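As practice, study what follows.
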Amino acid sequence: MGGMTYTMTDTTKLSTAECYGIALCELGEEHQDVVALTADLAKSTKIGMFGEKYPDRFFNVGIAEQNLFGVAAGMAKNGLVPFASTFAIFTAARSLDQIHTDICYQNVPVKIIATHAGTSFGQAGSTHHSLIDMACMRVLPHMTVICPCDGVETYHAVKAAYDIEGPVYIRINRGFDQVIYKNLDDCKFDYKKATVMNEGTDITVIACGSCVFEAMQAARMAEADAGLKVRVLNMHTIKPVDEEAILSAVADTRRIITVEDHEVMGGLGSAVADVVAKSGKGCAFRMLGHQDDFSTIGLQEDLLSMAKIDSNGIFEAISEVMHADFEADDAWDDEF
């Protein structure tokens, strides 16, 4: 059966990366075609857990990320299911050509676990911040893009990746994540469907990754402060995005805020905006994230605050968007 077990005390120690390592080891036990590859970051990315358990199916290509994905593509062409892991920025920026041509063009089942995403390794500086990766991966044909909100959801995403056809990109943090789901059974993960984390009819906040927890906190603040009912959607999958959940939010609340630890261009906000624009439905809309700029150096909680994508920043945006003027009638006949 498998399954992750831990005590309540352990939950605060379980990062997305650690849960990824646990899930990958279980996949290795269940499927003999699963192999794992690293670019000399086995310990940092937690893929080393698989290497310790299955050393004959574990490959370290050295500090050569382009080779990492080229080798993974070759293995996939020969009937294996490779899980390749390195930092998100090294994946999206340094190795984009190999992912584009070797993996996506051939549509092979390489599963990419990209760690230290967003500003989660904030103290390492801009070379290690990953604010462009979802934009790069989302535009690649055949690529599925997933950004889990915590460790338990990461566990389910990694297990699901094996069965998803073609290449998959899973974006996770360095660690020290907030715990949203305390038990595996609490998370009903379907990569094609967003998860409603908080019901609401006044405004919708659509978030992914570490910003889901911040959005849930902001929703509580808005209800306590002004009695607002804020719908919070965990849009864990950026591609294919759940269009039905987005359009339901537009119809029900007419006010949408997206929030992500990523550039606002090309990521979650752009994906949601595409759906709204295509529908012809009008709504008040705000995209929160990094606004066409690099982040400074510091701890993630400080960087989220500076970018106004922490709970206080989201709460402020909720207050502002609630006062936005737009045509609030229920008739869509005059909107195209």
Q: What stands out?
A: The mean pLDDT is 91. The two ends are 51 Å apart (CA to CA). Residues 72 and 227 are 52 Å apart (CA to CA).
